[in-house]
Amino acid sequence: MVRSILNTFVLAACLLIPPATAADAPIAPEALQADLRFMRAEIERIHPEPGLFVSRETLRLAYERIEERFRQPMERDAAWRTLATLNPLFADAHMFVTQPDWKAAARAHVAGGGVLFPFEVQVGANGDMIIRAELGGGASKLAGMRIARIDGVPTAQVAHELLGLMAGDTPALRANLLSRRMWLYYWKTHGAPAQYAFTLANGRTLRVAGSARLPASVADNEPGFARAFGFELLPGKAALLTVNTFLWPDRQAFYDFTKDAFTKIRDAGVTTLIIDNRENTGGDDDPWKFGILPYVADKPARNGSSYIKKVIAGRASGTEQVGDVVHGFGDAWVAPQLENPLRFTGKTYVLVGRLTYSSAVLFSNVMQDFGFAKLVGAGGYARTRQTGGVVNVKLPNTGLEITIPRFVLDRPSGSREPALVHPDIVLPDSPLDRRQAIDALLARLRP
C-alpha cells in the first residue's frame, strides 16, 4: 500500500512537468541525485527525530522513487515538484521543500507583464474550491461560487494534484495553506496563461483574464502595520484585538500598540476581550510573552514543557555536543504582572482557525493550559506539539530550499491529547466572512 501511494505522488509530479525553456535549462541527473543525497544528509544532521510524524520506512521508499525520477534531466520547477511530493509525507508545516524567493519571483513576474490565477480561493481537503475574492483580496461578484472545472479539468483533480505538493500537519491545514497560495502552485505546475476557462458548479461557464495584481499572500507582507494588527471596541463592553502575526521587525511598535489597546480596554470598562489569532501563522514568542501576557496573566507561564532537540553547529555547549539529541524540560517561566494597572480581569477568548500555527499555537496552548482564556473557533488543523527552530538549507545544484526544524516542544501541560488544537467553544468559521465567528461568539455570550 505504501509503495502504491508513493507511486501515485511521484506519478502526479511527473504528469505536471511542462517542457523546459531556454531560460530554465535542464539540470543533469547527477546534479539532481546529488541534491537528493545532500538533502537527506541535512535532515539527519538537523532534525532530532526524522521519523516523528512519518515512519523512516515511508521516507526511504519515497526517496527511492524520487531517485528513480532523477535519472533523467529536468528543469528546476520540475525538480521542485518531484521533491515536493515529500511535503505531505513530512506532515509538518515547519518542514518542506520550497521554491526560493517565491514572493520576489511573483513580484518580478507581475512587474514584467505576467499574470496569475485570477482568484483568491478556499480549497477543501476533499478538493472543493470556492472563490473568496479577486486575486489580491478585492471583492468579487463570484464570491461563494464553487468552481467545477478549470480549463476543462475537474477542479478536484487539480486540487488533489496541488495538495500532493503541500506541507502541513494535517490534510485540512494543507488545504488551508494551498488556499492562500493557489496562484503559486498553479503557476508552477500548469503555467500562467493569459486567460482561464472556468465552469462553475451551477453550470455557468466564463473566461477570465489572468490577474496582474499581487496575490494577498505577497501583498500582506508589504509594509503596513494595520494589515497585521487591529483593535476595536465592540458593543456590550467587548473589545477585539486582532493579531495576524508574531513576526514584526519593530517589537517596540507592537508593545506600544498593545499597551494602547489595554489602556482603551481599561478606560472603556471592557468586560469581554476577544483576541483574533486565526490568521496568525506565528513568528517569535517574545511579542506575546511581553506584549500580551503582562495584561492577562495571573500566574507564571511558560511556552511549553518537555522538549527534544538536535544540537547543531553554533548551538553546542560544554554539556551538549554537535550531533547530540537532547531531551529536556522547559524552565523559562514568565512572571505575571499582578500590579500592572492595565491588567485585564474580565473574560478573555482567543479565536483560533485555519492558519493559526507555530508561535501562534504556542500562544494558544499557554492561554488554554493556564486558564488565561478559552479557545474559540474551528480546530483540528494544527498539532499542539509544535516543531521549531527551523533551519533553511539551500540545495547546491537546483537552488531549491528545504526548511528543517531542530526541536520539538510539548505544550505546557505536557499532555499530548488531544493531538490537535481543540477549541473550548467550537464555532463555524466562514472563509467568506471573518466577522461571522466574532458575531456568533458575542451572541453566545449575551445573557
Description:
With 447 residues, the protein is of the alpha+beta class. It is 34% helix and 19% strand. The strands form five sheets. A six-stranded mixed β-sheet has the order 8-9-10-13-14-19, sandwiched between helices. The chain has a four-stranded antiparallel β-sheet with strand order 5-4-6-7. The longest helix is centred in the middle third of the chain and has 20 residues, at 171-190. The chain is globular. It holds the Pfam family Peptidase_S41. InterPro entries: ClpP/crotonase-like_dom_sf, Tail-specific_protease.
What structural class do helix, strand and pairing data support? alpha+beta
- Share of helix among residues? 25-40%
CATH homologous superfamily identity of the domain at 225-301 and 336-382 and 420-445: 2-enoyl-CoA Hydratase, Chain A, domain 1
Which architecture of the domain at 225-301 and 336-382 and 420-445 does the CATH hierarchy give at level 2? Alpha-Beta Complex
Name of the CATH class of the domain at 225-301 and 336-382 and 420-445: Alpha Beta
Number of helices: 15
Please state the CA-atom Rg, rounded to the nearest Å.
23 Å
Largest sheet descriptor: 6 strands, mixed
Percent of sequence in beta strands: 15-25%
Give the number of DSSP strands. 19
* CATH fold node name of the domain at 225-301 and 336-382 and 420-445: 2-enoyl-CoA Hydratase, Chain A, domain 1
Residue windows where pLDDT falls under 50 for at least 5 positions: 1-23
What is the mean pLDDT? Answer: 92
Apparent shape: globular
N→C terminal distance: 54 Å
Please give the order of strands in the largest beta sheet.
8-9-10-13-14-19
Domain Tail specific protease: 239-426
Pfam family, one: Peptidase_S41
InterPro entries: ClpP/crotonase-like_dom_sf, Tail-specific_protease
Keywords: Signal
